[in-house]
Specification:
The chain has 5 helices and 14 strands. Helix 2 runs antiparallel to helix 3 and helix 2 runs parallel beside helix 4. It is rod-shaped and about 110 Å long.
Length: about 375
């Protein structure tokens, strides 16, 4: 029974996908783009107009599709517009199918192309997200022009007036060059951004601290908050080390050498991108944080299993940007990040104040809201 139900579900899903694909193909094949060339009488051979009191009907519109352009690691997404007519919903009555009347209908179609170019230019210059509003506005402009055209040419009967209107529209088309997308591939991000990173981190203890506590290796994670070239980093390390190297007599129950240790840190720092290119970003940073080490709790008599220390740090981030995707006013950036910094940790005695060297490698993701 389960096999029958599964087979039926798979069949329904296949039929649904086939129907959707067929509809998309049908919709795409039922239009004729302005870029395909001038209209011909063959484009109006599917319908006759019936009992309509109109001599013709042109079904027209403006559509767009998402296009992309890739340069190096950067992919630009942008809408591409096109003017179209639907031959299956358009008609010219047989007695009006003359070259002179076709010139009148072509003027209609040329003006739709003109409105398309103006809409494309407006969207491209403003990085406008409300594309529907802009298209509706320019379609309304086209409808108003067609009313004027009908009045000036007496619905296409005045061939001299039709020729004048067509030449006027052709001149405007020549002035309004068609859209040519030229991406700014040297873009320097300006605006706000939020991101996160995760990777493998380490902390190598030196000096007196290294005599007691082993180095740590573990999960490094954090978040970025960017404003132009400035970045606030909040990050941390959860690590595991080797065995405690010396006894620590600080609490009622001493920490005994030979037991496995763990630890980590939490940091807050500020950095400035001294070098920010299409592929690389180098960010010196400085900040403060808390470093800690953990000792495994043996029994209920242990009154302390953690020692923490205030720290100051200074270092540098190096980001290799392997992917950037720009869409309007937003940009998603992915990079491999390496971080190296030194920290001065103020532990209590017997460990005392000492230095540690920290290194991590991971993946970073940023979402930019560009100006």
């Amino acid at each position: 029974m389960k096999r029958i139900l599964f087979s039926g579900l798979l069949l329904c899903l296949s039929l649904s996908l086939f129907a959707q694909n067929s509809n998309e193909i049908s919709a795409a094949s039922s239009i004729r783009k302005w870029a395909d060339g001038p209209l011909t009488l063959e484009d109006f051979s599917y319908r006759t107009g019936g009992n309509s009191d109109k001599a013709m009907r042109l079904s027209y519109g403006i559509r767009w599709k998402d296009d992309k352009h890739k340069i190096g690691n950067t992919t630009f997404y942008y809408p591409t517009f096109y003017a179209y007519m639907n031959p299956y919903a358009s008609w010219i009555k047989p007695e009006y199918k003359t070259p002179e009347y076709l010139r009148y209908v072509q003027t209609y179609f040329d003006y739709v192309e003109l409105c398309k170019r103006r809409a494309q230019k407006e969207v491209s210059q403003r990085n406008e997200h409300s594309i529907d509003y802009i298209v509706r506005f320019h379609m309304d402009v086209a409808d108003g022009f067609f009313e004027e055209l009908d009045g000036e040419t007496h619905d296409g009967a005045d061939t001299a007036a039709v020729r004048i209107c067509q030449e006027r529209v052709a001149a405007e088309l020549a002035e309004e060059n068609d859209f040519e997308y030229v991406p700014d591939y040297k873009i320097d991000p300006k605006g706000r951004a939020m991101g996160m990173h995760i990777g493998l981190g380490s902390e190598f203890h030196v000096g007196n601290m290294g005599a007691y506590v082993p180095s740590l290796i573990g999960l490094e994670f954090g978040f970025d908050f960017n404003f132009n070239r400035w970045t606030i980093f909040w990050d941390g390390l959860i690590g595991s080390g080797g065995n405690l190297r010396q006894d620590i007599f600080r609490y009622s129950q001493p920490w005994e050498a030979g037991n496995h240790m763990s630890g980590g840190n939490i940091n807050l720092s500020v950095g400035y991108a001294a070098w920010d290119s299409q592929w690389w970003k180098i960010t010196p940073l400085a900040g403060i944080g808390v470093d800690y080490i953990d000792y495994p709790k043996k029994d209920s008599r242990d009154d302390k299993t953690e020692i923490a220390a205030f720290r100051v740090l200074c270092g540098v981030n190096a980001d290799f940007k392997f992917s950037r995707q720009i869409h309007g006013e937003g940009m998603a950036e992915s990079s491999v990040r390496a971080r190296l910094y030194g920290a001065f940790n103020n532990y209590p005695v017997p460990i005392g104040s000492s230095w540690s060297l920290n290194f991590s490698v991971g993946v970073n993701w940023l979402a930019w809201f560009l100006k």
